[in-house]
Amino acid sequence: MTTDTQESTLTVDELAARAGVTVRTIRFYSTKGLLPPPVIGPRRVGRYGPEHLSRLALIEELQHQGMTLAAIERYLERLPPDLSADDLAIHRAVVASWAPDPAEEVARAELERRAGRALTDEDLDRLAAMGVVAYDAGADRCRVDPGLLRLGVRLLDVPIPHETILAARTALLEHARAAAHDLSRLFHDEVWGPSRERDAGPAHMAAMKSLSAHMQPLVVQALVTAFQRSLKEELRKWLKEA
Q1: Model confidence over 130-141: pLDDT tens digits?
Q2: Rounded Cα gap, residues 224 and 63, in angstroms
Q3: Counting Cβ atoms within 10 Å, is residue 129 exposed (0-12), middle (13-18) or buried (19+)?
Q4: Would you say 160 and 122 are in contact if contact means Cβ atoms under 8 Å apart?
Q5: Which of 178, 108, 176, 111 is nearest to 148 (CA)?
Q6: Crossing angle for the helix pair 12-19 and 23-31, nearest 10 degrees?
Q7: Cα Rg of the chain (Å, integer)
């Protein structure tokens, strides 16, 4: 994965502050190959960009799901090497959907600090349409979904009408729920049910929970990859027709 020099504006200290980790952690991840090297700028100072932030968020989420560093390393190795910050943010959001972070209530100033930019009222409306925040102007408080914030902020600069965002979110939620239902039913009918007939004790329950936890990252990656390929095919057809 390469990082655009023009977007690589963060020092290692700034990256650590934005990601909520220590500089030592960033150095460690870099030596393990979990983070790509920085862009070397003037005076040999390393600069980091959006891809590094998104990758750190994905690593954090995978750890939250209980994966070891070795398992995370294998997971990241299977990802395409040219994923953008947006692609990585989508992976993180989908992974987080297995066990969503509870929404947090913060002041607008804190929301802007986490977003890394000032947010206009129009920005807040667009983030609300994406299901990222719910803003109470009277109390100056925002209820924010931490798992979607970075992705939502990056989408603010995409010229998409407010109504289109709402329609896209509805379509994605409907299809995501349908896919989750079908996969859950498949797991229940083909794995859970037959194995439970052989052993219905506590050991069976523990084994099934462990299997489900290990399968979740693989299923997430398969879903994201399949969606990205399908979307490219649809866009290619649309452009050809246009």
Answers
A1: 888 888 878 888
A2: 19
A3: buried
A4: no
A5: 111
A6: 100
A7: 20
pTM of the predicted model, to two decimals? 0.46
Is the Cβ–Cβ distance between 92 and 58 less than 8 Å? yes
**How many CB atoms lie under 10 A from the CB of residue 48?**
27
Of the options 3.20.20.140, 3.40.190.10, 2.60.40.1240, 1.10.1660.10, the CATH number for the domain spanning 5-83:
1.10.1660.10
Statement: residue 14 has pLDDT above 80 = yes
> Tell me, what's the pLDDT at 208?
62
Q: Contact at 8 Å (CB) between 38 and 48?
A: yes
Distance CA 192, CA 149 (A): 35
Q: Which amino acid is at 68?
A: T
Contacts for 91 with CB less than 8 Å, ≥ 6 apart:
58, 79, 83, 220, 221, 224
Which phi and psi (to 5°) does residue 182 adopt? -65, -40
